[in-house]
Amino acid sequence: MTFDKIIHHQAQKDILLRALHHKRLAHAYLFEGPEGVGKKLMALALARALFCTEGQGCGECAACRKVDHQNHPDLHWLSPDGSQIKIDQVRKIQQELSLRPLEGQHKVCLIDAADTMNAAAANALLKTLEEPAAGTLLILLSARPEFLLDTIRSRCQRLRFNRLPRRQMAEILEHRLEVTEQEALVMAALSDGSFKKAFGDRRELYLDQRKKLINALLALSDGAILPLMNLAEQLEKDKENLEDILDIFQSFYRDLLLLGQGRPEAELVNIDLRETLFQRARREPPDALLRKLEAIDDARFHLERNVNRQLALESMLLQIVAA
Ligand SMILES: [Zn+2]
């Protein structure tokens, strides 16, 4: 990943490029912002620019290729072991960082999900932040910077990475994924600004499968229990996507609510289902829609707490149908 391939976060890119150019990089950066918006890509571009022997990350030299293949000996990664980054991991990295660089003049350590450091690990890392070795660059990545120690945050130069506005993200998706403008807008809305989601395996779910899921939901009728059980069973099996599927159902009923309130069509998520939305909006009073949305929220609450999934989903669908 080179800087010129990063298509957004221009201000952050400029700050880093200027610092690189004047050889005034901070010893530690904190890249903060939601999951999937490009923090790690930016960190890798910076590492590559530092290691590159031909320029600012040419992509061709041996050093650049090693960064891409994640086997550069001076690039170190720290990421949670289970749910936490532990002190042993920090100590091990500190040992590595105390040695001279093997290939160039720099050593870079990327700390992914830095907010998962437990207290002991964070306190150990403070030492490195307080007395950084020459040529060492630490880049902390975090979607929840408020969980980091104040003392850690204050020793890093902070760069904030925000989600892209929907329209801007859709333009990129339309161009990159060769989808239609409508599809791109749907994907941008559902991925909530996360390129990781939009470029990853969610594409199929957001486009084709979404329509099927919404149709299956709409086909349920009050009193017909078997199709409802079948749908619950189908959803239950799709554990990996369940959160996104609930997002899809939610987006549909929210769209109906927005239409009922006469909001502009540009605010709709499922704009490619315009006709269905308009037909349906006439039949669904706002209080029923609110009850359906509440049923989805309830299901989310229960699923997060690991209750019986099938039961939670059946109960959600029953409430939706009865609302
Ligand atoms: Zn290079």
Notes on the protein architecture:
With 323 residues, the chain is α/β, with parallel strands linked by helices. It has two domains: 158 residues, Rossmann fold; 122 residues, Zinc Finger, Delta Prime, domain 3, CATH 1.20.272. It contains 15 helices and five strands. The radius of gyration is 24 Å and the shape is elongated. The chain starts with 9 loop residues before the first helix and ends with a helix. Zinc ion binds next to helix 3.
What is the topology?
Layout: H1 10-21, E1 28-32, H2 39-51, H3 62-68, E2 75-78, H4 87-98, E3 107-111, H5 119-130, E4 136-142, H6 150-154, E5 157-160, H7 166-177, H8 181-190, H9 195-199, H10 202-219, H11 225-237, H12 242-260, H13 274-283, H14 286-304, H15 309-322
Parallel strand pairs: 1-4, 1-5, 2-3, 3-4
Helix pairs in contact: 1-2, 2-3, 4-5, 7-8, 10-12, 11-15, 12-13, 12-14, 14-15
Per CATH, the superfamily of the largest domain is P-loop containing nucleotide triphosphate hydrolases
At CATH's second level, what is the architecture of the largest domain? 3-Layer(aba) Sandwich
How many helical stretches?
A: 15
Topology-level CATH name of the largest domain = Rossmann fold
Number of domains: 2
